[in-house]
Amino acid sequence: MVEQPFKHMRLAPKSYTDITESVLKKAKTRIVQVKARNIRAKKKRELKYIKYIFERTVTKIKKIYTSIPRIDNLHPFYKSLVSLIVDVDRFRMDLAILKSSTEVLNKILREESRKIRRAKTITELREIRKEAIGRYFSVMKRMDDILNRVRGMQLKLIKLQAIDPTLITIVVAGPPNVGKSSFVRAVSRAKPEVREYPFTTKSITIGHIFKKGYKIQILDTPGLLDRPLDKRNPIEMQSIISIKYLASIVLVLLDPSETCGYPIDYQLNVLYDIWSMFKNIPIIVALNKIDLKINEEKI
After folding, report:
1. Is 198 buried (19+), middle (13-18) or exposed (0-12) by CB count in 10 A?
2. For 36, how many CA atoms within 13 A lie in the half-sphere containing its CB?
3. Rounded distance, CA 109 to CA 123, Å?
4. Model-level pTM?
5. Domain containing 56: what range?
């Protein structure tokens, strides 16, 4: 079974404090409360204390950026879809900053550990701990906006549906409100939202049909307007990339009753646009809502 590529991401916390409070609390419980009777024992305790804080924090941050799939390695459909949903350049930059922050934390840990080993007095040890924790928080505070922004992008990516590019795929396309979602609900197990107004579908919904031993994927896609490709918004572009990268066949629904809010000439322009862009993909045109009053001269 194909999984959504972002399913196993480790979500970034809402704030850096979600990391620091947890780590410091455990460090205090496990290490600080251990009694140390001489300078040597106190050095050992201080080393364990800052090592736990820094290493535990680095591990938590690493789990965030290493759990995110490399976008360049994704199937072209998902690669294009991600670029429509999040700012990929910003996302990459933020992940790179998280990675570099872990390197800074490791560097601070090495420096402060050396100072602890060279300390001569308990007072000096206290000052070193204070300095180490101050530097720690300085790095963590700088990550606050980045962690929050990464989390926001992750929450968008984790909602993507699991789509199998290897399956026979029917892409249902057409202008808004012509009945695409109702059709997909009727023929598959998908449950797309259906409303009596345009642009209800703002993302791709997947359903499956099982016929004679075959598993067929059927996609409900957002409505397309009659406008050039470079004028299409990210929601419409989800329909375009679904056809481009996934479609074995395209089912274009039209509404001759015009209750969708668009005259039939407008709808035909959308159909002609799909035809012109995807000449090598089979296209079936179906008329929906024919039980309603229609102007037969226009068909």
Report:
1. middle
2. 17
3. 19
4. 0.86
5. 17-157
